[in-house]
């Protein structure tokens, strides 16, 4: 079984779904829910539920939230032996306010702990990264940590997938992306990286020109654009979906893609599985579907 290492954020997610469209400056009735999140953690959970061997590399606080997050991760089959507990810090939290239709009205990130996801943190796990079958990293890591991760993946000859996470955090990616097998980013993130507003195909192509072997620019309901070195750009339309909660859609896309890449599928085919998994993810509340199984993935791949 290919061992996939996911390195980055592990978070406690608090979600508040509004009963009516948000109104600023006043109290808004809402329904609350609590779950576990973080880009790397979400991807790791989906991979574990699909039957992949997966290890999470992250930090949590020495608090009740951190203990609960680790217990849940172990229960779903994630190897958390490389997750450190930090005594003088709180486990990271993400709070999202959702519109009645499931769209994001506001997101708040209390993630001071992630300042410690630095180069020294990555260097401390270099052996694990270099011995992996596939590595996934994301920009909750500090800029020097992202650069170190790329370097170690290159040394080990390990395929490396990266996610830009957000417009602000995309600035942590190095200009030279050589050593990155595939970079995932939304259109606004790609524009921030490239430094100009362009058509999605041009954005994806510019990321490949910076050294990534492939770049995926996601376009929400309009699907995504894939650019690969020495291959024509492709636009993959999004499957029709009922939107309940968009939280974790991008993470599901990545997890489904990595699941199929680990099995030897071409990237374009793997992305189609990722798109189908994202469609399933947004049809229910929460970042990861609790009913996700290898059989369900097989079913959606042959639907």
Can you give a write-up of this model?
It is a single chain. The protein has one domain (3-23, 30-301): 3-Layer(aba) Sandwich (UDP-N-acetylmuramoyl-L-alanine:D-glutamate ligase), CATH 3.40.1190.20. The protein is built from ten helices and 13 strands. It has helices at 39-49, 64-76, 119-123, 126-130, 143-156, 187-194, 200-209, 249-262, 267-282, 294-301; strands at 3-7, 11-18, 30-37, 53-61, 79-86, 93-98, 104-110, 134-138, 160-163, 182-186, 214-218, 224-228, 234-236. The strands form two sheets. A nine-stranded mixed beta sheet has the order 5-4-1-8-9-10-11-12-13, with helices on both faces. It has a four-stranded mixed beta sheet with strand order 3-2-6-7. Helix 1 (39-49) packs across helix 8 and helix 6 crosses helix 7 (200-209).
Question: What key phrases describe this protein's structure?
Answer:
303 residues, globular, 9-stranded mixed β-sheet, 13 strands, 26% strand, 4-stranded mixed β-sheet, alpha/beta, 10 helices, UDP-N-acetylmuramoyl-L-alanine:D-glutamate ligase
Largest sheet, described in full?
Answer: 9 strands, mixed
Query: How many DSSP-defined strands?
Result: 13
Q: Please identify which CATH superfamily we are dealing with.
A: Ribokinase
Number of continuous helical runs: 10
Q: Based on the coordinates given, report the CATH architecture.
A: 3-Layer(aba) Sandwich
Question: Level of helix content?
Answer: 25-40%
Q: In angstroms, what is the radius of gyration?
A: 18 Å
Strand percent estimate: 25-35%
* Contiguous runs where pLDDT drops below 50 for at least 5 residues: none
CATH class: Alpha Beta
| Spatial shape | globular
Helices and strands, in N-to-C order?
EEEHEHEEEHHEHEEHHEEEHHH
Strand order of the largest sheet: 5-4-1-8-9-10-11-12-13
Distance between the termini: 25 Å
- Structural classification: alpha/beta
Total individual domains: 1
Query: Please, what is the average pLDDT?
Result: 93
CATH topology descriptor: UDP-N-acetylmuramoyl-L-alanine:D-glutamate ligase
């Amino acid at each position: 079984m290919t061992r996939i290492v996911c390195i980055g954020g592990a978070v406690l997610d608090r979600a508040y779904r509004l009963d009516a469209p948000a109104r600023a400056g006043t109290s808004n009735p809402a329904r609350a829910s609590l779950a576990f999140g973080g880009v790397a953690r979400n991807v790791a959970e989906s991979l574990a539920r699909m039957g992949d061997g997966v290890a999470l590399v992250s930090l949590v606080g020495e608090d009740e939230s951190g203990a609960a997050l680790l217990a849940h991760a172990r229960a779903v089959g994630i190897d958390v032996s490389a997750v450190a507990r930090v005594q003088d810090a709180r486990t990271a939290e993400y709070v999202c306010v959702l519109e009645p239709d499931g769209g994001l009205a506001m997101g708040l990130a209390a993630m001071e702990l992630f300042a410690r996801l630095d180069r020294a943190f990555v260097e401390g796990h270099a052996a694990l990264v270099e011995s992996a079958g596939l590595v996934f990293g994301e920009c909750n890591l500090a800029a020097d940590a992202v650069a170190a991760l790329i370097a170690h993946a290159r040394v080990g000859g390990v395929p490396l997938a990266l996610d830009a996470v957000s417009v602000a955090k995309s600035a942590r990616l190095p200009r030279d992306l050589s050593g990155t097998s595939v970079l995932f980013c939304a259109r606004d993130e790609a524009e921030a990286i490239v430094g100009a507003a362009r058509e999605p195909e041009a954005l994806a192509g510019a990321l490949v020109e910076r050294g990534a072997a492939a770049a995926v620019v996601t376009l929400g309901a309009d699907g995504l654009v894939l650019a690969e070195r020495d291959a024509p750009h492709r636009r993959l339309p999004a499957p029709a979906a009922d939107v309940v909660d968009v939280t974790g859609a991008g993470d599901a896309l990545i997890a489904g893609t990595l699941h199929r890449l680990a099995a030897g599928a071409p990237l374009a085919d793997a992305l189609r599985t990722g798109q189908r998994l994202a469609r399933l993810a947004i049809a229910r509340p929460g970042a990861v579907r609790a009913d996700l199984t290898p059989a369900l993935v097989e079913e959606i791949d042959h639907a």
